[in-house]
């Protein structure tokens, strides 16, 4: 027997009449780096997948992503160059990196599902 809920259908509704959530991820849209200058600081966006972006700032790499579940809650967390390069290879690698990052944050006592960016 499959572990999948046999009553689930894409775009369906829960027993309470609430529409099911559907996550749609597109292919990477960044084909050439986007460089943004902020005063004396220069940031380079090297990868984008749906609501996840990987930026290089100086010699450090950051992933910016929507960590909210029912509302948008953007986060930005530092990642290694290796993680950035691996994640920029495609959707599966990016999702794997983000999952490992969130586990690492939880293990260190940080809630990865709330925004850490100022308004």
Structural write-up:
By secondary structure, the protein is of the alpha+beta class. The chain has two helices and five strands; from the N terminus they run E-E-E-E-E-H-H. The longest helix is centred in the last third of the chain and has 17 residues, at 91-107. It has a five-stranded antiparallel β-sheet with strand order 1-2-3-4-5.
Oligomerization category of the chains in this entry: single chain
Element order: H for helix, E for strand: EEEEEHH
Task: Please compute the radius of gyration using only Cα atoms.
Answer: 17 Å
Class by SSE composition: alpha+beta
Number of helices, where a helix is a run of at least 4 consecutive DSSP H or I residues: 2
Give the % helix: 10-25%
Beta-strand content estimate: 25-35%
Could you list some keywords that capture this structure?
single chain, 119 residues, alpha+beta, five-stranded antiparallel beta sheet, 5 strands, globular
Write the layout of secondary structure elements.
Elements: E1 34-38, E2 41-49, E3 52-57, E4 60-66, E5 74-79, H1 81-87, H2 91-107
Question: Quick recap of the structure?
Answer:
The protein contains two helices and five strands; from the N terminus they run βββββαα. By secondary structure, it is α+β, with helices and mostly antiparallel strands.
